[in-house]
Amino acid sequence: MLRSGVASLLRQAGTHKSGVHAAAITTSAASQSLSWFADVPTAPKDPILGITEAFLANTRPDKINLGVGAYRDDDSKPVVLNVVREAEARIAGSLFMEYLPIGGLKAFNDLSIKLAFGEDADCIKEGRVAAVQSLSGTGSCRLMAEFMARYMPGAKIWIPKPTWSNHHNIWKDAGVKEAIYKYYKPETRGLDQEGLLEDLSTAQPGDVVLLHACAHNPTGVDPTVDQWQEISKLMKEKKLFPFFDMAYQGFASGDCTRDAQAIRTFLADGHQLGCSQSYAKNMGLYGQRTGCFSLITASPQETASVESQMKAIARPMYSNPPLHGALLVKEILGDAALKQQWYDEVKGMADRIITMRALLRKNLEDLGNPLPWNHVTEQIGMFCFSGISPEQVDRLAAEHAIFMTRNGRISMAGVTTKNVDRLAQALHQVTTA
After folding, report:
1. Cβ(342)–Cβ(327) under 8 Å?
2. For the chain, is the Cβ count within 10 Å smaller at the N or the C terminus?
3. Which of 192, 199, 245, 259 is catalytic?
4. Can 362 be counted among the known catalytic residues?
């Protein structure tokens, strides 16, 4: 698009008489054209940002925003964890603010992989984990996509249907071919395990499978322990590489070990695998862009080579990761008392959401709604895939000033003891009339 705009300018410049200074020609041509960027189209709006805009524009005092993917307390206010404030006080003024190495803060990386893979994981003790600090979960996934494009040529990325919408953009922009596997079954509001296994059985050896470690976004549907074992077995037989996006460790069930169970299952089965970690949700470090990207290798020698290439990919992309968030995480995970405080606080956030799920289901059932709502409490994590239609979502916005994505995804963080009854009443109305 930009090229055609430039060509237009040059054509106009060419109509001027010879002998005129080139700079004057260019200036004259530019003045006659709209812009160098006249042919650049407007990108479509992000659907989540559109929900927020509609919410802010609405004047009803009882409006509800169920689109935002960030934790809120029972007063619908953003939260900074007390443990984060304590960590901030400890690091304030204690260190310089110069660049981190390309791979980030090593102590942060070391603590992160222990959180993901286990304190006593063999892969860590044997030096088989290559890890770099990343720009939260999105940055980790993008590094993986670029790594695939360079060092896993021909491999497809298998992405569940549905998934977080940005997953598609990340691998597409890296030039990696995408394949889709079934995940959610609308009829049961649960996992389509049969369809999942059927689709992955058609993947080629060397393909990469994107897996949500816990609290699947947008459905809130996670495989059971037995189902994870089936998935792991199939992927091992098919020689498929697992890549876990873990954005909600601790935030899903309130237990960091339980939320990493899928990864531990794959490790026990002898997989090499990759992992994207984010501290946006579970520590509330949304704006700090703090994450870790790791790949498990076969040997320390491979680790050194792989990690060097991870850094080489990061260098032209953003050069160095941010310092502040990494220092906060290092302080929290590296201090036994702070780590326990964080465990308690992240469990408190998870428990509040679990409580809201139970209240929403109870209110809908007490209203005599004819639809089944057991999936509200059977799903887990920040999001609930409600099962309502796009048209019913539109009615919620127009008639009740309740805003969510058109696929019916409810951000349970936006549900409070003050609005859960009104939400249930509105859902009852749009699903029965």
Report:
1. no
2. C
3. 245
4. no
To the query of whether residue 281 is one of the catalytic residues in this protein, the response is yes
Give pLDDT tens digits for 333-373: 999 999 999 999 999 999 999 999 999 999 999 999 999 99
Question: In CATH, what number does 47-80+339-432 get?
Answer: 3.90.1150.10
DSSP E strands in 151-219: the ranges are: 157-161, 178-182, 184-185, 190-191, 208-212
Is 77 one of the annotated active-site residues of the chain? no
- Check 156, 158, 164, 199 and give the catalytic one: 164
Q: For the chain, how far is it from start to end, CA to CA, in angstroms?
A: 48
Kindly report, residue by residue over 11-68, the tens digit of the pLDDT. Answer: 444 444 444 444 444 444 444 457 899 999 999 888 777 898 999 999 999 999 999 8
Interatomic CA distance for residues 47 and 390, integer angstroms: 13
Which fold would CATH assign to domain 82-337? Aspartate Aminotransferase; domain 2 (3.40.640)
178 in Cβ contact with 171 (< 8 Å): yes
Phi, psi values for residue 233, rounded to 5°? -60, -45
Q: Where are the domains of the chain?
A: 2-32, 47-80+339-432, 82-337
Out of 48-57, 178-187, 203-212, 317-326, least confident range: 48-57
Residues linked to residue 242 through DSSP beta bridges, in sequence order = 209
Instruction: State how far the Cα of 370 lies from the Cα of 179, in Å rounded to an integer.
Output: 37
Q: Is the pLDDT of residue 314 over 90?
A: yes
Non-local CB neighbours of 340 within 8 Å, separated by 6+ positions: none
